[in-house]
């Protein structure tokens, strides 16, 4: 299985909105508008990486480099679930962070109701370090050092 991470471009933003609004994703992310995705892709505040599987846009990742060593893994959305693309994308993202951003730690937050995501993060070596609430829903904070 070959998955390629590419720097995202504004023309992909509409597809990102559609992916976030799909029935099996919208309960786990807070969707962004087309305008917000476009402005973030253009900004230097975050790093957007598009996931290409068999040369087709299949998802995206949003990262934010907090410091030299630490990256916040803000979002992953995969269009086609159950194929292992998300796990592969996370492994590729970690490699990207180590090689291109020279970081040694990635952290994320995930809604407690996202059991599939939590299972995958734990399987890939992420451990929980705190909890918080967002609009009444419990968020788990997880991290991985490499």
Describe the protein.
By secondary structure, the protein is of the alpha+beta class. 29% of the residues lie in helices and 38% in strands. It has four helices and seven strands. The protein has a seven-stranded mixed β-sheet with strand order 1-2-3-4-5-7-6, sandwiched between helices. A hairpin with a 2-residue loop joins β6 (127-134) and β7 (137-145). The longest helix is centred in the middle third of the chain and has 16 residues, at 85-100. The two termini are 24 Å apart. The mean pLDDT is 95.
How do you describe this structure in short?
With 146 residues, the chain is α+β, with helices and mostly antiparallel strands. The protein has helices spanning 13-20, 34-42, 85-100, 115-123; strands spanning 3-7, 47-53, 56-65, 70-78, 105-111, 127-134, 137-145.
**Rg, Å, rounded:** 14 Å
> Which percent band covers the strand fraction?
35-45%
H/E element order: EHHEEEHEHEE
Largest sheet: 7 strands, mixed
Q: Given the C-alpha coordinates, what overall shape results?
A: globular
**Number of helices in the DSSP assignment:** 4
Helical residues, percent: 25-40%
């Amino acid at each position: 299985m070959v998955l390629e991470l590419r720097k995202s471009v504004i023309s992909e933003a509409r597809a990102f909105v559609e992916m976030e609004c799909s029935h099996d994703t919208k309960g786990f992310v807070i969707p962004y508008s087309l305008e917000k995705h476009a402005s973030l892709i253009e900004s230097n505040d975050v790093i957007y990486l598009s996931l290409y599987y068999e040369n087709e846009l299949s998802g995206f990742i949003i990262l934010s480099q907090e410091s030299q060593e630490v990256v916040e893994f803000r979002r992953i959305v995969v269009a086609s679930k159950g194929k292992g693309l998300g796990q592969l994308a996370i492994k590729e993202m970690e490699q990207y962070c180590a090689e291109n951003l020279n970081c040694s730690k990635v952290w994320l937050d995930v809604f407690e109701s996202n059991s599939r995501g939590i299972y995958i993060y734990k399987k890939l070596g992420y451990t929980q370090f705190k909890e918080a609430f967002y609009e009444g829903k419990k968020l788990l904070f997880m991290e991985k050092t490499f």
